[in-house]
Design brief:
The chain is mainly α. The protein contains four helices and four strands; from the N terminus they run E-E-H-H-H-E-E-H. The longest helix has 28 residues.
Length: 115
């Protein structure tokens, strides 16, 4: 049977790891919460959009902020939340590293499996 790999694509799971706490990561989940806050102006709405309890989303964000030593969200009580400039910067950096890594992996896979 002839083998073709034309329908294969690599999937990269990127995480930024904090040095202060070994289990602290800024990965897909935290990035999705941050994107939701950016889009909806609310951590609660971001969590609901991900079918996640607000309390869990709050704990995740708080743990991440503590581990990285940076405030990601500006909380305004009942008026919602916004990303801080540092939160925006970290999310943008995460998305760009993810984009570049995925593009590199796709090109490398194509090259390595070329017939």
């Amino acid at each position: 049977m002839a083998s073709t790999f034309s329908d294969m694509t690599p999937q990269i799971k990127l995480s930024f790891v904090g040095t202060a706490a070994e289990d602290a990561v800024f990965g897909r989940g935290v990035a999705a919460l941050c994107r939701g806050v950016r889009e909806y102006g609310s951590l609660n709405k971001a969590a609901k959009n991900m079918s996640m309890a607000y309390s869990k989303a709050w704990r995740i964000m708080k743990t991440t902020e503590e581990a990285f030593g940076v405030q990601l969200l500006e909380r305004d009580g009942a008026h919602g939340s916004t990303l801080t400039p540092e939160g925006d910067r970290l999310l943008d950096a995460y998305e760009e590293v993810q984009r570049r890594t995925s593009a590199y992996a796709a090109a490398a896979l194509k090259e390595l499996l070329a017939e």
